[in-house]
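Homework-ish question, so no full write-ups if that breaks the rules, but can someone show me the predicted structure for this set?
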Amino acid sequence: MIKAPTSVDLREFSEDVENSETKYGLPNEVKYCSSCVISNQRPNSSVEFQHTSDSKKSTINFDENGVCDACHQTRRKNTEIDWSDREQELKDLCDRFRSKNGEYDCLVPGSGGKDSFFAAHKLKYEYGMHPLTVTWAPHVYTDWGWKNFQSWLHAGFDNYLMTPNGKAHRLLTRLAVENLFHPFQPFILGQKNLAPKMAEMFKIPLVFYGENEAEYGNPIGDNSTAIRDYKYFSGLDKSEMFLGGVSLLELVEDFGLDEQDLIPYLPADPQKLSDNNTEVHYLGYYLKWHPQSCYYYSVEHGGFEASPERTPGTYSKYNSIDDRIDDFHYHTTRTKFGIGRATYDAAQEIRSGDITRDEGVALIRKFDHEFPERFAEEIFTYLSMSPKEFPRASEMFEEPMMNREYYDKLADTFRSPHLWQNVQGVWSIRHPIK
Amino acid sequence: MANIRLIPRLDIKGPNLIKGIHLEGLRVVGDPQVYAVNYYESGADELLYMDIVASLYGRNNLSDIVKSAAENVFIPITVGGGIRSVADADQLLRSGADKVAINTAAINDPELISKLSQRFGSQCVVVSIEAKKQSGGKWECYVDNGRERTGIDVVNWVREAITLGAGELLITSVDKEGTRKGFDLELYKAVKDVATIPLIACGGMGCLEDFDNVVKDGGVDAVSMADVLHYNRLTLPQIRSAALDSNINVRQP
Amino acid sequence: MKITVVDYGIGNLLSVVRGFQRIGCDVQLAAAGEEIVSASRLILPGVGAFGDGMEEIRRRNLEEPIREYAESGKPLLGICLGMQMLLERSFEFGSHNGLGLIPGSVIEIPKQTPAGNTHKTPHIGWSGINKDEVSWEDTFLQTTSPNSPVYFVHSYMAAPPIEYRLASCDYNGVSICAAVKNGNIYGTQFHPEKSGPIGLEMLEQFLTL
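A: Not a homework solution, just the prediction itself:
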């Protein structure tokens, strides 16, 4: 039985508390990168199917001058890497895999956003490959996201769109929110797993992702290779797997899910991958990635359109705009790590040289804290486990229906006292960026 | 009729001339002074400067840029972005601007239009509107450089602005700007019917025909352009020459 | 060459100053009466409402010095509102008295053409100017070609008797008084300092008078 959230003890969040508790294994002292604006609380990517509420996070590394790994990676990108060499490596790779008879020779996972547009288009039209694009559906499409997805395909790509069954997806999302405060987990699971599985199914030996998350702060060692570590998307021991922080066994026995329902979320079978000789590469290793340039590229070559409205929590209109639940993803990262969407967007744009750090700080102070009103009601309905729709699962929740009040209370339980304070009923970040 | 005016638009962030698409993904183009002088020498009729980060920092920061421009450019200069009060406008006019353009501040406090036009004359007051197309043949006003919705209908706001004393209207199509796919002609047609003051079109100029269409079908009095000039896809003399060939009155400098 | 510009707190002085500096003048801003009277060439700029402009001039005790300067026979150039204020009165936002150095009133630009079409006000933009009653010789227009485009931005227009009209322009069928002359006293409704090289040339010619 999943209990409804209870109120937190506000004394832990008072202004002058000392030695506050630090959740998630985050660093106790909050620091901001002196070069971009990311904080040292930024968690590295998890292996999601091992993610439970007890999991401790490893976080982005800062050097002794207070500069983060992602900025170091940017410096290397700009000064140390020989991009013509790298491009030659890409050409060699493509030559090795290019099909002679027009059959698919590489798989490009993507959504039709600016980055996947760039990747697919370059591979097909510049490097002469025959990509099959695959898409793991957003939880809830935005209108403009769907439109951009269509525009992408109409620029000349075959595509398989995998939409996991809506019921299972909603349940897993609700569980991920309850246990991990991580609504995006079901999306991430599918996103990471789909391409390798499809590649194996279609016998396509090469998969291209875009940027390596290491560009944003995963351990810098991850950057030295083009090849994505199998650990992120394969694994075999089901007894050690969790979805939404719940073991697979419990999901079937207690929550009314079928084994079949779980399949899309489970990682690929490493044996099958190796039998197929599947290689997963980052295009960002071979081509110097600049998200804003991808925006221009996708507008020019495919009619990509930025969102017609500003995304809550940030200033941007072209980053990650196809899923209505995205707004909440960033709201939860802010709740858990003190990092909202404006911070992520600004950090990236500062590193890319598109904005200055001062501007980034001003943007964060203006937008980072916003609550995503625009789709809130719709998302709360999405997350509600009504007895009619979820006869079995609804019984597992003390309060199966979700609303703003529930969400707010739940959010509070995920706030770490070392990050948050509550003064006269108002929550604020203890150490905002200056 | 009066000559149709060609007005290069310079979007400024800090010290740089920048440009985006749909007012997003802003890229540095170069030194604004270099471009301004170049446009003056190629026969621009006016220059339009917009401070793109003004609302972020709470004020317009273009005084210095305008001063430098006024040193070398002897055509009218309009400045917009973050102008919130009579004092803000005064400072810019003293720095060499001839007209001020207001958007967000006017929507938040429409009386500002009257205050400015009484103090400086309506010919100094350009009401700038960022229009985004909605369904049903309507457009919504956006503010803060195309970031925030207001729920206000463009045509209604135009009427109100005129009543309050605006001297000119600058109407930018958020949908078209930066795309080079032509102007939103329907937008200008809809506004034309109620606009008794001069109307400047902005957003979407890609080819010579676009200019022709927006003047003849859209009925506008002036055309503002950015991308097509900054990236040297067309020059002002080319645009002028094509206009004359097409029987459009433009200045022959 | 020295030139004096009246500073009465209104209008974009910078452009006028820069325009004359560009053609090599030493520009003095005059906020006090003595500076005006002792000037060798005087410019009266102005942007905005007639009533406000005249009030500022009176408040700063500049009306008499300007009249005194005008009587001296030295060249005086009023620009835009500056030109309008040279006339006897204006009907903008009520009735206001001007400097009366040129006969006539300032009236609203008609909103309808003689043919019955409505057109837009303010009159903003570039229009070509042509001779009216008065010859352009020995004036600042002596090197200007007919139909030269210059920049106008105004809602009210001067309507002096015909013998004072130096130049006019056609705005959609309405004849607008573009420049005036009364002996040594000149005015331009348009902004020569904003009319590109053609305007700067006029400023240069003003220096030869």
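Now go work out the reasoning yourself. Hint: The first helix of chain A runs from residue 69 to 80.
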